[in-house]
Amino acid sequence: MYIDHVKNIKGIRLSAPGILNATKQTLIGPAHGWEGWVMRLFTLTAEGHTPRHSHPWPHINYIVSGKGTLFLNGTEQTVEAGSVAYVPGDAEHQFKNAGSEDFAFICIVPEEGDV
Description:
Strand content: over 45%
Largest sheet: 6 strands, antiparallel
Shape: globular
Number of strands: 9
CATH topology: Jelly Rolls
CATH superfamily: Jelly Rolls
CATH class: Mainly Beta
Order of helices and strands: EEEEEEEEE
Radius of gyration: 13 Å
Strand order of the largest sheet: 1-2-3-9-4-7
CATH architecture: Sandwich
C-alpha cells in the first residue's frame, strides 16, 4: 500500500530543448508498487510548454488545473481542468500553458516511458 499527498512529493524542474517552465512530480510508479506504469503530474507555469515530440508508448492525460492547448497529430485543441486525452504511441504532441495560472495535468505512461 502507498498513500501520500502531492504537496509532499518533490518536483523536478525539467530542462531540455523545447521545454519551458515545466516541473514533473512522479506520483505513483514501480517504486511504490505499481509495476509497469507511472503516473506523473506535470505543471507548466506561465508561457510553459513541453517539447513537440513523439515516442513509441501511448499515454493518457487528465487536466487538473488551468487552461492550455494540446497539439496532437497536426491539430491544436484547447484543454482545461476536467479535460481528458489519449495520445497514441508515435503521435506527435505538445502541451502548452495558454493562461496566466499554472496548467497542470496527470500523465500516465508505461514504465519505459518515464524518461
